[in-house]
Specification:
The structure is a homotetramer. The first copy, chain A, contains 9 helices and no strands. The first copy, chain A, is mainly α and about 160 residues long.
């Protein structure tokens, strides 16, 4: 199943490598010697979780169907426009972020606001619907960052 | 928008009246003189909320698309089978339940387990996909029950 | 840390054995051959999680301090009375329930409503404050039940 | 009750005015003509909600008791140090942020990470325990920002 999830992410222009760069950016100031390999491993562990897989597949399906005009109205237009009060994308993202506890929420909100790296590119892609995709990327990156923090526990205080 | 939401619920065999019966069942032991009118008003207030409308429309769209075989695989089969570990329906339902605080969660879990009234009928409908619909009904009923509880505040302790 | 958590639970009259009975009750109809040992192992895995440990220790501390009249007013009275709209106990419980995804929420709501076994005894103990304790027990049991469900995945459909 | 909440916030060095500045900072780029009065009104509406009041009072009580060494160990030390994996403060904050739907989560995470204004000052106060206080401020500000966004709905798209 993880393989399918990675394939469907790639079909939407999202590579595990891009996500790893975001995780690295999030965590480098807390863990000076952090290596990209550790970020990739953390993402791999996140994508192994069934709850994450279901959230990713559901969110990407909604983006794809909105793009193909297959959703009923008015939800089709709402998702296509990423209407400002539409929060279902954040809700799905929380299901991903929560798997390593709530400390991932902070990073998620930060990434969603700052639109770092791939997240910003997805958010502004013309012609594509990435209403769910950008939140999914931010959520996977935040969960992976939380996992790294959990593995490093006992290494002193840091501000998450 | 509320009118559209009620119409789309009705197209899936869900009437506000059926939901009111569930709210009444949930709350009658706490508020002996409870009238159905109060339940209907509470449901109306719940359906007025933008977050609720978006959650309902998104969930029903996923049921409809799964029924019409328009979702990509493997998420299509997962939703059609209501796979036991698929929790995205509960996640969407929480977005509804939460609008009057967390006290609605208890009723939601109870309803989802006991499959009371319409919820049980939806869950077992052959030929239809109601993976999201049954949780949506349970969530609207729980939120309405929480609203009634909030309005009655100061009327003494009860166990929610 | 897990040992400390189990000790603090026992000081509030909560044994892992009592929780295992609740998990067994929740899951026996889905898994006919379920053994108590499996329930105990699942609870053990739940209590291993840092997020769970923090939620349990924080909740029990609030019960103890309320009992000793050390909390400031008005929150002291609110917690001691388990005021009907106070939902912070449910919020803490969700932090526990969520660690294996949202499928645990259904069991949690059901247990909280039905007050099965120890949960009912805690809820009604005179002279003690168990505002957080009963939700904590329901949450640990629900998370353990969700873990068992995750481990059994692929064994066909069941209604959670 | 709202009056008591505001008093207890002030006793911890938190004024509604400081929070209004944060809300203003969050929203000024979306609503060019935004006035501080609107921010104050939105905060007032947030603090009117029972769920918010309970979350604030519970969180501040935990900070105060930790400061006075009245919490049992090990949770006392964990809260005093704001241990990096302790996420109960974020969980309480979510109860506040959620009252206007999930769109508040993004602002919350951003504020928590950037430590803007009062939030940064609280977080680094020596001699005081502000483990819950900084998240509470970020959460109230985010909920107020979400309320402003809801009131402005229909005024076109903006990125929350």
């Amino acid at each position: 199943m993880k393989k399918i999830v990675i394939e469907q992410l790639e079909q939407r222009g999202i590579t595990v490598d891009d996500i790893a760069l975001i995780v690295f950016d999030l965590q480098k100031s807390y863990y000076p010697g952090l290596e990209k390999e550790v970020c990739l491993e953390a993402i791999d562990a996140v994508l192994e979780k069934r709850e994450v897989q279901y959230a990713v597949l559901t969110g990407l399906a909604l983006d794809v169907l909105a793009e193909q005009d297959l959703l009923p109205e008015p939800i089709s237009t709402i998702i296509k426009m990423d209407e400002s009060l539409y929060g279902i994308d954040e809700i799905l993202a929380l299901a991903i972020t929560n798997i390593y506890g709530t400390i991932g929420i902070t990073s998620f909100g930060y990434l969603d606001k700052m639109k770092i790296g791939l997240i910003g590119r997805l958010d502004s892609s013309l012609g594509y619907v990435n209403t769910f995709a950008d939140d999914i990327v931010a959520a996977i990156a935040s969960a992976a960052a939380a996992k790294i923090a959990h593995n490093q526990k006992g290494n002193g205080k840091y501000h998450h």
